[in-house]
Amino acid sequence: MGNNKLSIGPEQVFAIGCGQCTMIRRVLLVAVSMLAVSVHAQQTHPTLTLPFESRSGLIFLRITLDTRPALLLLDTGSNVSFAFKTGAGVELSGDHFRTTEEYPSRVAFRYPDILKDSQGIIGQDVLRQFKSLRIDYREHVIELTK
């Protein structure tokens, strides 16, 4: 019976090792890429969550306006936000709404009966401060993301 031992020299060991290193590098690269995507997806953007109620197909935000509870119509077609009673502008300061000393000059508005309990309108001037607006009809909240 002959000698059936396999003899591997240093060159073959290095070649086997390099092939495995390439495979390990690829696996690590994929793992690091997946981790980077996961971390990017988990970055949080400040989000303001506001409760709303729906009436006759219109969305009314339940907010605090000048430290008082208020119901404001969400009107994406309006360029300005304003309070009905005074005509003063409405702005978002941090996460609180307040009236301003400004009075939108081009506001022409006829009050339909559905707005009798509402105190004003939130329009595009406030909405444009955010990257996105998400309406969650099940939870009855609007999420405004910076």
Chain-wise SSE layout:
Layout lengths: L9 H33 L4 E9 L2 E8 L2 E7 L7 E2 L6 E4 L2 E4 L20 E3 L1 H4 L4 E5 L4 E5 L1
Parallel strand pairs: 3-7
Antiparallel strand pairs: 1-2, 1-9, 2-3, 4-7, 5-6, 8-9
Short description:
The protein has helices at residues 10-42, 124-127, and strands spanning 47-55, 58-65, 68-74, 82-83, 90-93, 96-99, 120-122, 132-136, 141-145. It has 146 residues and is an alpha+beta fold.
Task: Provide the spatial order of strands within the biggest beta sheet.
Answer: 4-7-3-2-1-9-8
* Helical amount: 25-40%
- Structural class designation: alpha+beta
E-strand count: 9
Number of domains: 2
Mean pLDDT metric: 77
How far apart the termini lie comes to 80 Å
With helices defined by DSSP (H or I, 4 residues minimum), what is the helix count? 2
The proportion of strand residues reads 25-35%
- The run of helices and strands is HEEEEEEEHEE
Unreliable stretches: none
